[in-house]
UniProtKB/TrEMBL annotation:
<protein>
    <submittedName>
        <fullName>D-glycerate dehydrogenase</fullName>
        <ecNumber>1.1.1.-</ecNumber>
    </submittedName>
</protein>
<dbReference type="InterPro" id="IPR050223">
    <property type="entry name" value="D-isomer_2-hydroxyacid_DH"/>
</dbReference>
<dbReference type="GO" id="GO:0016491">
    <property type="term" value="F:oxidoreductase activity"/>
</dbReference>
<dbReference type="Pfam" id="PF02826">
    <property type="entry name" value="2-Hacid_dh_C"/>
</dbReference>
<dbReference type="InterPro" id="IPR036291">
    <property type="entry name" value="NAD(P)-bd_dom_sf"/>
</dbReference>
<dbReference type="InterPro" id="IPR006139">
    <property type="entry name" value="D-isomer_2_OHA_DH_cat_dom"/>
</dbReference>
<feature type="domain" description="D-isomer specific 2-hydroxyacid dehydrogenase NAD-binding">
    <location>
        <begin position="107"/>
        <end position="286"/>
    </location>
</feature>
<dbReference type="InterPro" id="IPR006140">
    <property type="entry name" value="D-isomer_DH_NAD-bd"/>
</dbReference>
<keyword id="KW-0560">Oxidoreductase</keyword>
<dbReference type="Pfam" id="PF00389">
    <property type="entry name" value="2-Hacid_dh"/>
</dbReference>
<comment type="similarity">
    <text>Belongs to the D-isomer specific 2-hydroxyacid dehydrogenase family.</text>
</comment>
<feature type="domain" description="D-isomer specific 2-hydroxyacid dehydrogenase catalytic">
    <location>
        <begin position="24"/>
        <end position="313"/>
    </location>
</feature>
Length: 328
């Protein structure tokens, strides 16, 4: 009988959905498979459900029968696409279902940094709030300021909608190509990256991690930003040179930052970023609401089922591997 492996626990309903295809192996509630357990479970598996585990040559070697790796995430930088192509393993991901949830976090981080929510929460709790304190509590406005979105996909559009219609912001965007729909719907203006960095009050990074976007935000680019600007990263940690970001924040090249992603996750507790008062850090929670994470896992399961039932066109196959479906 065919076998499906999930690196994380599945609910009874999720296991039932998969069991029509074969045996299902997943760790018990509250646990993840160790690499050894995973590799051993994979030796006769045709399908893998993953949550960020690297699907590379080392894993694929242990899974000679694998037909599909389905990740419960929209990002798939943990897929070694060349290795998957060589072995004709399809990769699927979960676009759409998380767009609004990630865009909500983008607004939350912009507001938290601009209005110094975390810093001032500590101030109140430590009993430091005194009568007459006025200017020490000031932040900066979000409404009517200029938002620069780098990477204009579905999440970028969801963020632009909130910023434009909720906060009357002006929208600049930079992407590989221009998007008429975005310009019409949100009055957004396309800008080259240097121009966007120079003009925006808030810069939000939403690009996928690719060889072209690795270290996209480096010292030169942080130096282009306004001293009053706020930087938000919702993409992947490796899109940012973190040493340069620390300098930018310490030396006042920019006002502050809100970070959901880091080069190393979990970020080490002694990381210099964590000692800076002008940074709000959250632990890669862009899509982390119960409803959205459930929808993502359900979609990852549907993708896997579609591929294994011979309907790969009904699955969200990652664009770089779509031609494998067309080849049949
Ligand atoms: C994704 O889906 O890629 C997100 O980063 C996970 O929260």
């Amino acid at each position: 009988m065919a076998k499906i492996v999930s690196t994380k626990p599945l609910s009874v309903a999720q296991r039932e959905k998969l069991s029509r295809l074969g045996d299902v192996a997943c760790p018990p509630e509250g646990r993840r498979f160790s690499q050894e357990e995973l590799f051993s479970a994979l030796h006769d598996a045709v399908g893998l459900i993953t949550f960020g585990t690297r699907v590379d040559e080392a894993l694929l070697e242990q899974a000679p029968s694998l037909k599909v790796a389905s990740t419960a995430s929209v990002g798939y930088d943990h897929f070694d696409l060349a290795a998957m192509r060589r072995r004709h393993v399809l990769g699927a991901h979960t676009p759409h279902v998380l767009d609004d949830t990630v865009a909500d976090l983008g607004m939350a981080l912009m507001l938290a940094v601009a209005r110094r929510i975390v810093e001032l929460d500590g101030y109140v709790r430590r009993g430091e709030w005194k009568k007459g304190d006025e200017e020490v509590l000031y932040g900066v406005d979000v409404h009517h300021r200029t938002l620069g979105i780098v990477g204009m996909g579905r999440i970028g559009r969801a963020l632009a909608k909130r910023a434009k219609f909720g906060f009357s912001m002006n929208i600049l965007y930079h992407a590989r190509s221009r998007h008429d729909d975005v310009e019409q719907a949100f009055g957004a203006r396309y800008a080259a990256l240097p121009e966007l960095l120079q003009d925006a009050d808030f810069v939000v990074l939403l690009t996928p991690l690719t060889p072209d976007t690795e270290n996209l935000m480096n010292e030169d680019r942080f130096r282009l930003m306004k001293r009053s600007a706020i930087f938000i990263n919702l993409s992947r940690g490796k899109t940012v040179d973190e040493d340069a970001l620390v300098h930018a924040l310490r030396e006042g090249w920019i006002r502050g930052a809100g970070l959901d992603v880091y080069r190393q996750e979990p970020v080490p507790p002694n990381h210099p970023l964590l000692s800076l008062p002008n940074v709000v850090c959250v632990p890669h929670i862009g899509s982390a609401t119960r409803a959205t994470r459930t929808a993502m896992l359900d979609l990852a399961i549907d993708n896997l089922v579609a591929v294994l039932e011979g309907r790969p066109k009904d699955a969200y196959i990652v664009p770089e591997l779509k031609d494998l479906v067309e080849e049949g």
